[in-house]
Structure formats: C-alpha cells, structure tokens
Amino acid sequence: MLVLSRQRDETIMIGDEIEISVVDIRGDKVRLGINAPTRIAVHRKEVYDAIRVENAQASKIGPADLDTLAQTIQPGPARRSVRSPKASSSVSSPAKALGVTTVRPPVSSSNSSQDKSSA
After folding, report:
1. Which of 15, 43, 85, 87 supports an S-S bond with 48, CB 3.0-4.6 Å?
2. What integer pLDDT is reported at residue 102 of this predicted model?
3. Is residue 52 part of a domain?
4. Domain-located, residue 101
5. Cα–Cα separations (whole angstroms), residue 18 to 2, 40, 49, 50, 103
6. In whole angstroms, what is the distance from residue 23 CA to residue 31 CA?
7. Phi and psi of 29, rounded to 5°?
8. Which residue range(s) make up the domain with 15?
9. What is the total count of domains within the chain?
C-alpha cells in the first residue's frame, strides 16, 4: 500500500483522470473530494461491499424464480396492440399507439429574419 501525506487543499492524482483532494481535516476525520469520470464507480468501502453481496445474491436466481417472474410480467394492452400485425397497419408509430402527441411552437418568418440580420 502506498501511503502519502497531504495537507488541506492538496491533491493526489491516480492516472490521468482521477483526482483526490483533501477538502477538510477536523480532529480525526478527513474529508476527501474525488473527481473521476462517470464511468468509474466511486463508493465508500462499506457501500461497495454491500453492493457486491447484493449482486451475488441476485445472480443466484433459480429456474423456479424465472418461471414465477415470467408469469408475473405480461405486456400491457398498448404494447400488445403495437406488436400485433393488424395494429401496425392502422397505427403509424408506437407514440401514436400510446396516445403521445408532439406540440411544436410556430416559427415566425419575421423572427428568423431578425436573427439573421443581427448575426
């Protein structure tokens, strides 16, 4: 294990993308700020261990559990109508089948000509 000493407002770099900064020191507690890409998960150790245990339990799903899950989850009526061949000819898009409409504000020709002249 590498042990480094840092004072308040000093930073440690891990590779080119991860920065660990000492934000505050109060008594026996040190507050760290971690700047890392979103693709890198950053957790406290106890949270990380809990996630690992939960993932291990979730991966132990059995065939009986899958059968129960398959009987529980059924597609709703809107989804059935979108997937059926008869409905696909009468409905042009899944959004219309679900009753979704898109409203776009009108574009005035006088506004667009003002934008061009001011640019």
Report:
1. 43
2. 63
3. no
4. no
5. 16, 9, 21, 24, 43
6. 5
7. -110, 135
8. 11-45
9. 1
